[in-house]
From TrEMBL:
Catalyzed reaction equations: Thiol-dependent hydrolysis of ester, thioester, amide, peptide and isopeptide bonds formed by the C-terminal Gly of ubiquitin (a 76-residue protein attached to proteins as an intracellular targeting signal)
Organism: Thalictrum thalictroides
MF term (GO), any: cysteine-type deubiquitinase activity
Pfam families linked to this entry: DUSP (PF06337), UCH (PF00443)
Domain DUSP: 284-376
Disordered, as annotated region: 160-202
Chain intervals with Polar residues compositional bias: 167-202
Keywords: Hydrolase, Nucleus, Protease, Thiol protease, Ubl conjugation pathway
Localisation: Nucleus
Alphabetical list of InterPro entries matching this protein: DUSP-like_sf, Papain-like_cys_pep_sf, Pept_C19_DUSP, Peptidase_C19, Peptidase_C19_UCH, USP, USP_CS
Protein name: ubiquitinyl hydrolase 1
GO BP, sorted A to Z: protein deubiquitination; proteolysis
Length: 442
């Protein structure tokens, strides 16, 4: 409040954060966006603030103050803007500059004795000109080697020492990025991105230290705080004690994260070991089954008709050979109503030697057992009778056909006569290639 000087009650509330949303419209550098984010906003006129102390609307100022900073600092660049008139969103494709090394010490509302120097470690990029379409990729730096990598779905590409690749070198500065005139700039271009090699400014208040980079597609910047001497000493002590056996010497993790990493690594190692054991077991089972199938099939042929053999369903035999865990032996589908093997199912059965049948039955069980003597004579006789009846019917039908044609033509017939349906008689005469009497004939 500009009248009483009191801060609002909301000012006493602190909120944790890991990400800052920065405007980039009309702004060219990360420094400009941070200044805009932390600048004072005048609340006056129709936008006056209601002061609880003054009990009235008064002119006031509003701003965001940074009291502490996290170890990992993310900047969300607001490339998506909304147009109220058209009610549509548009992507800002203006070039935006950001440093490789960021000093945030001057951005806190109160001076801090901590070193607040951050290194650029990742850049998230949206490739495309519209909000509703495009492709996302991530450029991430290996902190141990300093090498940048591009992660594009399953494609991983090495970029080198710069977040956008080495590119082709020129000596002209980026025209839309403001730099002090005393600083020499070298640019490396790569598509919509540039790497601007810049000498460190003599002004300690400038947050740009070392190289700066520019991109028209970057929408998130990730910075990692440099370790202080105290942190490095603590990391060395942990490493010497053997507690950082899975972490590189140059890296440092908080104790709770280190324990979580150890648990995840142990769980992963156990899962890999269980998988390897299961794989070996399954391969042994498959190998054993393959050898069993080959062995039994080699014994399956029957040397001569004088030796006893057994009938088996080819469908069951096929699934037995194809599956790791076969079902019990099932010969029911090849049986007739008399419990024997009919000649009509000769295409669904196979002969097995007594030795091969004994091995299958003893291991898988099931049944029923059908031997060489289980050919169904009843079904065989019925089939033979059917053939005889069909021959007899064909011969008798020729004589009946002559009588029917005469009757249909109106010729006088000798003997006792009977009335039949004329339409049925016409249909009966039109039937061809009939071997068996149908219900109408009966």
């Amino acid at each position: 409040c500009t009248k009483c000087g009191q801060e609002s009650e909301a000012s006493s509330k602190l909120e944790d954060f890991y990400e800052l949303e920065l405007n980039i419209k009309g702004l060219k550098t990360l420094h400009d966006s941070l200044e805009d984010y932390l600048s004072l906003e005048e609340l006056c006129g129709e936008n006056q603030y209601f002061c609880e102390s003054c009990k009235s609307r008064v002119d006031a100022t509003r701003s965001i103050k940074l009291r502490t900073l996290p170890d990992f600092l993310n900047f969300q660049l607001k490339r998506c803007v909304f147009h109220p008139k058209t009610t549509t969103k548009k992507k800002l494709t203006s070039l935006f500059s950001f440093p490789g090394v960021l000093d945030m010490g001057q951005k806190l509302c109160e001076p801090s004795q901590l070193e607040l120097v951050y290194d650029l470690t990742a850049v998230l990029i949206h490739k495309g000109t519209t909000v509703n379409s495009g492709h996302y990729v991530a450029h991430i730096k290996n902190e141990r080697t300093g090498i940048w990598w591009e992660f594009d779905d399953e494609q991983v590409t090495k970029l080198g020492a710069h977040p956008f690749g080495e590119g082709s070198s020129t000596t002209k500065p980026v025209s839309n990025v403001e730099q002090p005139p005393s600083e020499q700039i070298h640019s490396l271009s790569n598509g919509n991105h540039t790497n601007n090699g810049q000498l460190k400014s003599s002004d300690n208040k400038n947050i740009y230290c070392g190289e700066t980079f520019s991109s028209s597609d970057a929408y998130m910047l990730m910075y990692t705080r440099r370790h202080t001497k105290h942190n490095k000493k603590q990391c060395d002590e942990l490493n010497n004690s053997g507690q950082l056996n899975s972490v590189d010497n140059s890296d440092f993790l908080p104790s709770h994260l280190l324990e979580e990493v150890k648990e995840i690594n142990a769980s992963y190692s156990n899962a890999c070991e269980e998988y390897d054991q299961k794989k070996v077991k399954e391969l042994d089972i498959i190998k054993e089954r393959r050898e069993e199938v080959r062995s039994i099939l080699s014994e399956a042929p029957v040397p001569s008709f004088e030796e006893q053999f057994f009938w088996i369903s080819t469908d069951w035999l096929r699934q037995w050979a194809d599956n790791v865990t076969p079902l019990p032996l099932d010969n029911a589908p090849i049986q007739c109503c008399h419990g024997k093997v009919p000649v009509s199912k000769v295409g669904l059965i196979k002969r097995l030697s007594a030795n091969a049948w004994s091995r299958l039955l003893s291991k898988y069980g099931g049944g029923p057992t059908l031997t060489d003597s289980d050919i169904c004579i009843n079904c065989l006789m019925e089939g033979a009778n059917t053939i005889v009846r069909s021959d007899d019917y064909r011969s008798r039908r020729e004589a009946l056909r002559e009588i029917a044609e005469d009757a249909h033509a109106g010729k006088t017939l000798a003997g006792t006569l009977y009335y039949v349906s004329k339409s049925w008689l016409s249909q009966w005469l039109r039937r061809k290639h009939v071997d068996f009497p149908c219900e109408a004939d009966v």
